[in-house]
Amino acid sequence: MDAIEIKDLTKHFKGFTLDHISFALPRGCIMGLVGENGAGKSTTLNLIMNAISRDGGSIKVLGVDNESREFNAAKEKIGIVLDEAYFPEVLTPKNVNNIMKYTYQNWQESEFFSLIDRFRLPQNKSFRDFSRGMKMKLAIAVALAHQPELLILDEATSGLDPMVRDEILDLFNDFTRDENHSVLLSSHIVSDLEKICDYIVFLHQGKLMFCEEKDRLLEEYALWKLTKEQFEDIPKEAIRGVKRNPFGVEVLVKKDAVADVFPAEHLSLEDLILFLAKGA
Amino acid sequence: MHIVISNAVNQPIYGQIYRQIKNSILSGELKAGDMLPSIRSLAKDLRISVITTKRAYDELEKDGYIDVVAAKGCYVAEKNLAWIRETHLKQLEDHLRNVRELAVSCGLTETEIIEMYRLLQKSE
């Protein structure tokens, strides 16, 4: 069964339309949501949590329609982290534990404190004295301590240093050792997504560009560095993106539409997304 | 068992896993009946995609190197590995026959061919 199933999701705002988005996150997988600022990533996540209501289409989360009554029970099984962690400033992690104990039915105190230990967070320091990285770690500890099956994270790794980000990615990697656990995360930092995702969803100006298995994506395309003359010889239908400089051309091609006659450069997911976004 | 995933080589990740597990089996490092790591734990340990790992295991199963037993695990197949080795030797022989024909047409001596092979091995 899919952890999240979205069909023809549509939402209109003034000046922005999320346009018939469809994708599914299979259980046990990690899916990354990429796209420029204003592409519709946060809107999609908000629609999944039914924090804003949709204009059309359907969303099923953990098997239930998110506008149905049963969704309230399903929320117990979802952990959420937004790009800013908000807790009252005077609270310490110990206080947070005491509050969450009465908020979530499945709250696991031992799990929470072992995460606090793992992240080396001080138990008795108040939230206002936390650094950005510490705040984010606390939010992630809270999201994981109530035994969720699905984690949803909106830009949770942005603004953090590479060490902290790596630590957090490791945690998501471990979380999905259980085949019932799934993660949906959005990020600008494409290299983070490349490290851990099974699937990549690419949104561009409110439209779904693709939802693909990450490794297949990188196999399907090739990046070539060519002279202008060489470039002229490539069949136009194979070209997905072009970057020119005074001395030559970098071109992204679909491998199955052209014979592979030129040596392929190392293609990162980030390059791929940039080429495709400009070509679109 | 060693599995090294490299971004420097121009080979898809599932192919790298497939080849390395296959080689471990053919070399005898992994014996028939040996249990392989589960798809999920291998993927998570290597920090690669679960789907990619599954693809490698599917290929290994299709080609008869491993058995996937539902809800139990993945095992090195009992299937006659001697036969697999035999077919590989046969392929090698065919290739060598081609090499000989080409060498004759280019007028290369045996020593020159061996030297060529050595150079190839060094450059790899």
What would your notes on this structure say?
- The complex is a heterodimer of chains A (280) and B (124).
- Chain A is α/β, with parallel strands linked by helices and 280 residues long.
- Chain A has 2 domains: 2-205, Rossmann fold (3-Layer(aba) Sandwich), CATH 3.40.50.300; 217-279, no CATH class.
- Chain A has helices at residues 41-48, 71-74, 93-101, 109-118, 132-145, 162-175, 190-196, 214-220, 228-232, 269-279, and strands at 2-13, 16-26, 30-34, 56-61, 64-65, 78-81, 150-154, 182-186, 199-204, 207-213, 221-226, 239-245, 248-254.
- In chain A, strands 6-7-8-3-9-10 form a 6-stranded mixed beta sheet, with helices on both faces. Chain A has a 4-stranded antiparallel beta sheet with strand order 2-1-4-5, with helices on one face.
- In chain A, α4 packs antiparallel against α5 (132-145).
- The longest helix of chain A has 14 residues, at 132-145.
- In chain B, a hairpin with a 3-residue loop joins β2 and β3.
- Chain B has 2 domains: 13-76, Orthogonal Bundle (Arc Repressor Mutant, subunit A); 81-123.
- Chain B is mainly alpha-helical and 124 residues long.
- Chain B is built from 5 helices and 3 strands.
- Chain B is elongated and about 60 Å long.
- Chain A binds chain B through residues 28-29, 173-174, 176-177, 179, 195-199, 213-215, 219, 264, 266, and chain B through 7-8, 10, 12-14, 40-41, 44, 47-52.
Please outline the helices and strands.
The complex is a heterodimer of chains A (280) and B (124).
Chain A: E1 2-13, E2 16-26, E3 30-34, H1 41-48, E4 56-61, E5 64-65, H2 71-74, E6 78-81, H3 93-101, H4 109-118, H5 132-145, E7 150-154, H6 162-175, E8 182-186, H7 190-196, E9 199-204, E10 207-213, H8 214-220, E11 221-226, H9 228-232, E12 239-245, E13 248-254, H10 269-279
Parallel strand pairs in A: 3-8, 3-9, 6-7, 7-8
Antiparallel strand pairs in A: 1-2, 1-4, 4-5, 9-10, 11-13, 12-13
Helix pairs in contact in A: 4-5
Chain B: H1 13-26, E1 35-36, H2 39-46, H3 50-62, E2 66-69, E3 73-76, H4 81-106, H5 110-123
Helix pairs in contact in B: 1-3, 2-3
